[in-house]
Write a structure and sequence with these properties.
Beta-clip-like; about 20% strand; 4-stranded mixed sheet; 3-stranded antiparallel sheet; single chain; alpha+beta; about 200 residues
Length: about 200
């Protein structure tokens, strides 16, 4: 088993912070990791697989973001500062799994899987950066982009301080549905995207 790291993209993830501020955050992170109660963001599956001691890893976050209680679902990730639009906010990290291993993990009620391509999947429950805690919204302020095997969460617009970060999970239109509680005006009622049926 092995973790997934940013590698050569590391220098790009300094974001708007100075190198001194970045080093200070990493030292603080090593001294005390954020440890809220066990919880999980909803993904489709039957057995519990929980993230242990969820926290934001400053090595992958470009802005000051924190984990707090969420009105959407248990806990979420919030901006501690203004985040401009169209910027890298955080990288989604985790253990790299092939299709067979990912299918085995999907047997649980809660998972943190992100498919990078048709073969590789990241399991945010192991080696996650904190991006795995970001909740779903039908009107999100983030969007995911896969670049050279790295999953980047980008801001769709300016995000205000204390605003919760959200992303559209883009679940497939399956027979089973998951009720959505994002509260957006354009909420579609389910986390799954409903396909438009052709009129006969």
């Amino acid at each position: 088993m092995y973790g997934y790291r940013a590698g050569n993209l590391g220098a790009e993830f300094l974001g708007d912070r100075s190198i001194r501020d970045r080093l200070r955050m990493i030292l603080e992170y090593r001294k005390r990791a954020y440890q809220p109660p066990s919880f999980a963001t909803i993904h489709r599956t039957t057995e519990m697989t929980l993230v242990q001691a969820p926290r934001i890893d400053p090595r992958y976050a470009c802005f000051d973001i924190v984990i707090r209680r969420s009105k959407i679902h248990r806990y979420g990730v919030y901006a501690n500062q203004r985040i401009p639009g169209h910027r890298k906010v955080i990288e989604y990290t985790g253990m790299r799994l092939n299709r067979k291993d990912a299918a085995a993990v999907e047997s649980g009620e809660y998972t943190y899987l992100f498919a990078v391509d048709n073969y590789w999947t990241l399991d945010g429950a192991r080696g996650g950066s904190g991006a795995e805690i970001i909740n779903h919204s039908c009107d999100p302020n983030l969007i995911s982009r896969v670049m050279k095997g790295h999953v980047l969460y980008m801001s769709l617009r300016t995000i205000k301080p204390r605003e919760e970060l959200t992303i559209d999970y883009n679940f497939a239109d399956l027979k089973e549905t998951t009720a959505c509680s994002c509260g957006a005006e354009a909420c579609r009622g389910t986390i799954e995207k409903r396909k438009k049926r052709k009129k006969k």
